[in-house]
Design brief:
The protein has about 450 residues and is mainly alpha-helical. About 80% of the residues lie in helices and about 0% in strands.
Length: about 450
């Protein structure tokens, strides 16, 4: 059953509105997150905060794995199957939630045997249930937020995330001021509460907007038919995460924990602008699936917006690097300002890379693109390591940016040709045999081939 128009949004919703919602979500939740952890550090013991941070990090990692590429799949499928939107979303959320819950239980049971510091996570049946619930719910929200982008309702995921961040902070304040016996799982539980409240609020809004519960009856048979496509997206999504997740570890391993702390701050600030090309390419996918005849026009729009935003954001960040680093700690400025100024230059090749991945997914080449991205990630890490050996943290940052530039030179011709070709229709190149098997529904000539990048 098709979802109400108030939930799906108009077909001509602007790309900038949905992209802005993603950037706004990242900015707002990051700001509220700083206040959240500041309060936690002042009201809870260092041991409790450390355990909570470790548990939340594990929860996030497990949720990314458990998402199985379902969010990326929904972004492309929902516009193609308007009469099955509710059924697809509910089926995907149930599958994601169960998968996340199972991984959460396994981690909670095994973790205490790996490290005694993680013992409280599996200390009792209750703590195992709470941890597993957090993983399952987080997985569901990862999929749901991308589904909302697929419906061109980025504003809803923005509101849901604001409700989540605000609720967990309010619950944390209540726990910190009223409870006499607290631990790390007390802090962790505030995340679970925040997610639950945000999901309930979203459901109530959907019902008020005209959604009938019958529209949410899951149709696993339809989802099962897209299993290969889901796996292809998941493999590519994981390949895209290798370099971003590994770089901070490399800095600590190759240089020192002290230098690693400096890099973490620079990396955090730089990622604040790296979300711009990511958000634009993500929304390009959703809008392209909804309006396939205007794909090339939308591609040119996102490239133009991305380049203009990259120039402005990188200029501001380049000039304000010292001030931004000093906000975290004046002691970090000496070691982190130059690496930050180097890192922010990566936004330009990332703009090309994100759109390249989106176009390749559009053409049903998720599996082959995953191999290309894997090789590219190895290049990034290799040049980063070489740079670290050569010139420390600035050398590592330079090596990473150079690797991105090399990739963009390889990827630019496809992006240019796709945007330049006359007409506005979506790319019509047919996938290879292997890629068609990975994404079977692309074999149908009437089905438009549009996807995205999820870094």
């Amino acid at each position: 059953m098709k979802l109400p128009a108030r939930l799906t949004g108009s077909a001509n919703r602007r790309i900038i509105a949905n992209a802005s919602s993603l950037v706004g979500t990242a900015s707002a939740t990051a700001g509220l997150g700083l206040v959240y952890w500041w309060f936690a550090a002042h009201r809870f013991s260092p041991t409790s905060v450390g355990l909570a941070y470790a548990a939340i990090s594990a929860m996030t990692l497990l949720a990314v794995i458990a998402a199985l590429g379902l969010g990326t799949l929904l972004m492309g499928e929902l516009p193609r199957q308007p009469d099955r939107q509710g059924a697809l979303i509910s089926a995907a959320l149930m599958l994601a939630g169960v998968t996340g819950g199972v991984l959460g239980v396994l981690f909670a049971v095994i973790a205490p045997h790996v490290s005694s510091q993680l013992g409280p996570i599996g200390g009792s049946v209750g703590t195992v249930v709470v941890f597993a619930a957090g993983v399952g719910l987080t997985t569901m929200t990862l999929v749901l937020d991308q589904a909302l982008i697929g419906l061109l309702r980025g504003g809803l995921q923005f509101i849901r995330n604001i409700i989540f961040a605000s609720t967990k902070f309010l619950v944390l304040i209540g726990a910190g001021l009223s409870l006499t016996h607290t631990n790390g799982l007390t802090i962790y539980s505030t995340w679970v509460a925040g997610i639950l409240v945000s999901l309930v609020c979203l459901l109530l809004y959907a019902l008020r907007a005209g959604l009938h519960l019958g529209a949410l009856r899951p149709r696993f048979r339809v989802l099962r038919g897209l299993g290969r496509a889901t796996l292809a997206h998941h493999v590519l999504n994981l390949a895209l995460q290798i370099s971003p997740l590994t770089l901070p570890i490399l800095v600590t391993a190759l240089l020192s924990a002290r230098i690693g702390a400096r890099f973490d701050i620079a990396w955090l600030v730089a990622n604040g602008i790296f979300i711009i090309p990511y958000a634009l390419s993500l929304v390009l996918y959703a809008v392209g699936a909804a309006e396939p005849d205007l794909f090339r026009q939308r591609l040119r729009l996102t490239l133009g917006l991305g380049f203009a935003s990259a120039v402005l954001a990188s200029a501001v960040l380049f000039l304000g690097a010292g001030f931004l680093i000093s906000i975290f700690s004046p002691a970090y400025a000496h070691d982190a300002v130059l690496p930050l100024r180097i890192l922010i230059l990566g936004i330009f090749p990332l703009l090309i890379k994100d759109h390249y991945v989106a176009i390749c997914r559009t053409r049903g080449r998720a599996v082959r693109t995953a191999l290309i991205v894997l090789v590219s990630s190895m290049l990034e890490l290799a040049l980063a390591i070489s740079g670290a050996v050569w010139a420390g943290l600035p050398g590592l940052s330079t090596g990473w940016v150079v690797a991105l530039c090399v990739q963009s030179l390889f990827m630019l011709p496809l992006v240019y040709r796709t945007a330049r070709v006359g007409g506005n229709s979506a790319p019509s190149e047919r996938p290879t045999k292997n890629d068609a098997q990975a994404v079977p529904y692309l074999e149908r000539p009437s089905m438009v081939e549009v996807s995205t990048t999820t870094e």
